[in-house]
Amino acid sequence: MKTTAIQTLMGAEGIKEAYRMTLSAQNADIVCVSEKYEQVIGDYFTSEYAPKLYKTCQTREILPDVPENREYAASKDASRNAVRFMNAEKAGETDKIIIEDMVIYISFNLKAPYALVITDADLAKTERALFEEVWKNAGK
């Protein structure tokens, strides 16, 4: 029997908790279109989370195609942490992370930031298939 669970984690601390859930994953597919996340979680992503994630997890990230992200991507080991780019000018302040049987949606809404963590094998499979389509069409 498949296990399904839904958690809503509120505020900056809830978002950090959701990020920590990904640290044991071997692989992660990430769509990160947020550019103002530091206004919600400060330097947590760059100082604590990313160094741990990229050391132990193979990732594929889709990021907005802006010079800062291209510079960031050039500093990564592309064999373990691949990056592609998309036009995200119409996107909101959100991230999505797909690991194993879990999908994490993160909203960096300044008034009410949250993470929605859904453990559901079918949803993860569908989101991974959608990620694959975007990955194929994203710029390198």
Overall average pLDDT: 92
Largest sheet composition: 7 strands, mixed
Low-pLDDT ranges: none
Rg, alpha carbons: 14 Å
Decide which structural class fits the backbone.
Answer: alpha/beta
Number of strands: 7
Question: Gap between N and C termini, in Å?
Answer: 40 Å
Q: Please count the helical segments.
A: 5
What best-fitting shape do the alpha-carbon axes yield? globular
Strand content: 25-35%
Compressed to H and E, one letter per element, the order equals: EHEHHEHEEEEH
CATH H-level homologous superfamily name: Endonuclease Chain A
State the helical fraction. 25-40%
CATH topology: Endonuclease, Chain A
Biggest sheet: strand arrangement: 1-7-6-5-2-3-4
Which CATH class?
Alpha Beta
The total number of structural domains is: 1
Name of the CATH architecture: 2-Layer Sandwich
What does this structure look like?
This protein has helices at 11-21, 38-41, 44-56, 67-74, 121-137; strands spanning 5-10, 27-32, 58-64, 81-86, 94-99, 102-107, 114-119. The protein has 140 residues and is an alpha/beta fold. The protein has one domain (5-137): 2-Layer Sandwich (Endonuclease, Chain A), CATH 3.30.870.10. A seven-stranded mixed beta sheet has the order 1-7-6-5-2-3-4, with helices on both faces. It is globular, with a radius of gyration of 14 Å. The model has no long low-confidence stretch (mean pLDDT 92).
